[in-house]
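Agenda item 2: calcium ion complex prediction
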Amino acid sequence: MSDATSKPATVLVIEDEVQIRRLLRVCLERGGYQVAEASSGKEGIGEAAACSPDAVLLDLGLPDMDGLSVLKRLREWSQVPILVVSVRAHEDEKITALDSGANDYVTKPFSTGELLARLRAALRSAQPPEANAVFRSGRLQVDLATRTVKVKGQKVRLTATEYALLLLFVQHAGKVLTHGQILREIWGPDGGDRTGQLRVYMAYLRDKLEANPGEPELLITEPGVGYRLVVPD
Ligand code: CA
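Presented output:
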């Protein structure tokens, strides 16, 4: 195959630790990606401009700049999917990274399978769905044009708020949405204190969409951070 679509995606790795860079390179090349590397924030920003990567893996602990600053600088001009790779397991940092425009995060030590799955999801979410698109994931089918939601082929009735919430997840399928992002989108700038209400609406949605609402397979909880709608591989 030599058509343009078969060109491997390029992933830029911004990571100061040589061993982790090497590990990521091996993992990504096995996954079929081309790899570009940078060992500092400044170099990473330059490399992102020079090689127009399809995705960026960004370490938060860099020697010259805070990774979050690198993220914000990249977001000033680029919508490239950015996955934050961090040893820091603090939820506050994940939330700040996501709120600053990261598509997802992977916490070190990570499994290569998980990393590649999250990367695929980030690359897919970078391609906006076509107009009239029908979104499908497992048992769920959402026709965005007719606002029809089906579960295993059966039409499901959603309230306006439930549909708005589901639509938000579909528009960001595969991506973690923080509680703050969801509250702002659904209830506006003053929505920040409605976390309890969000939990209630998530329960309603899961009741209507999930096979087993207690063990969701579509609308996954990211503990302490937010929620994610699973996209099929
Ligand atoms: Ca580091």
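Discussion summary: Residues 195-209 form the longest helix (15 residues).
Owner for follow-up: CH.
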